[in-house]
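Risk register update: the risk of archive-format incompatibility is retired. Evidence:
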Amino acid sequence: MENAEEKFRQLKSDLSRHYEKEKYRWLRFCLFDNLDIGDITDPRFIGMFLFNRLHEEGKITPQNVSLLLDIAKVTRLKHAEDLVLQYMKDNNIQNTVNILFPYRKKLFRALKQSEQLDLQRVISHYDLPTETPNIWDAVLQLEIDRDLDDNPEKIKIFASLVGKRSQEELYALGAELTETKMELSSCKGGNKLSPTDEAIKTFLKEQQKGSYKAMNLMESVVFGEQYKVDIADVFTDLTLLQSTKEKPVDHATRRKETKPTSLEDVLQIIKPKSSCKVLITGWWI
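Archived output:
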């Protein structure tokens, strides 16, 4: 365990050297959704501090460096990406999950094209401090103030202030977010997952698959040692149960009324139990 922790510490230290000065601002931008504002704006201005905070928050671990790989790919720092990939190879870690939201990835690309352009227009429009040194510090303040986020209208306003090289990327991002919001509105009350929930679901399933990657069968505790379940049956989409209550219709018949059980109700059942089993299409897991 100590050896694994030491290798992980070395990975963080090596990566931090690739995210210094201007590139530190890239790192800070990428981590805006993953750390508290106090961490993002910490005056130490050191990449190692941010990596350590990610570790403390459980966002990265010696066996889960997906976020680090995603950042290296988005920022297009080949040496940083090679470091993470080599670490994964040496420690037999697989990765198929993207952590950063598409909004942040596409906004990063647009900002990279505008690093030296139209800063004064942005400062003037949003009434930012005149000493704001660069577009990355400007955007950080805009995101803190909620003047810029994944709202298509806010992106459209911001796009009108930057250079033409970035406008096409930003307008495309705004159109994509508008379409996503329309899809979410159309599926309210249904079973369709939002893009964010779908990404979380995919991430969790990939993590679970990684735990079982060396096995073809698993033992079902309920049935005992001699009963084996094919590993494919473990990965089942879950749906919240329906709570039921019987309501008399007349003296001879009774009718069941159902309503969706909330996740909070389910957790209240699970928490006080030493174990909890859920029946899914005939299987106890």
